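Re: that chain you flagged

S.,

Sorry for the slow reply, it's been a week of failed gels. I finally had a moment to sit down with the sequence you sent. For the record, here it is as I used it:
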Amino acid sequence: MNTMHPILKRISDIGIIPVVTIQDPNDALPLVNALSEGGIDAAEITFRSEHALTAMQIIHREMPNLLIGAGTVSSCAQAESAVNAGAAFIVTPGFNHEVVRWCIDHNVIVIPGVSTASEIETALSYGLTTLKFFPAESSGGVRKLKDFAAPYAQVRFIATGGIHEENMHDYLALPNILAIGGSFMLEKAQVTAKNWDAIRTRSQAAIAALLGYELIHIGIHHENEQAAQKSADTLCSLFHFTRYNKPKAYFAGKGFELLHHCGRGKLGHIAIYTPYPERAMYQLTKQGIGFIEESITRNKQTHRINFVYLDMELAGFGIHLINPDVKM
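Prediction finished late last night. Pasting the structure tokens below so you have them in one place:
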């Protein structure tokens, strides 16, 4: 399993990278603070405004733990000034050979924009395998990315352009997507009105939509298989559930797992679905939650985490995350 660069790993874990254009340098700090409090502790500050560098300097100084990238970079001078201002990565709208070469020569992460196979080939010739797919929707969107997956299996994309809450999972579900970029949590009217509370709320909603938490089932411990079967049959009799027989448990419907044994958690466990356990772990870690390393299982093809226990109990029940690749 290849080790991903820590900055790219963090971009992947966050999942959504806001594309930010600063029109007033006084907005820089409260705007990204609202994003961060909403769960999105990263921003791509674009050079579509004369205040980009000032904004990067302010954010880097006051919020050094926030991940800053510089976007719409079109010259080596902009790239150098952005790095000096605190940018951790450089994003270009198209494939700019001079900027790419400067970044490589100065050991700076660069994510150039591409939309065609020829541009991907060019990026690979520079040794780059993380690219910006832009403009995503008008360049063929999800279908085009699926077409790229087979011939360019080693390439991961940050898709930007026309992505919002309604279609973001179409992109994020693809194995060749590292993250998405967009400004759908930054409505222009709210930024103009300096309505930071609204932006915080939109950011929280974006992260909630991204993680998509759902209760899958509650697992209940039993001393043996016979006791588990009795509980399953009782629930099925009372509530007309269907009993499913599994190797280590009975299910009453899909909501109750009656285990043949005692496992993690004093009484049992609560199973929470999320399509992206690693992104959920990133957000939960910021809330002080740890994880039980030996409980982690991974998808054999993608190596992505598909199961992990939190290092906590709730009312005697352990809690684990699970993704839809795991067969119940």
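What I noticed first: The first strand starts at residue 16 and ends at 20.

Talk soon,
D.
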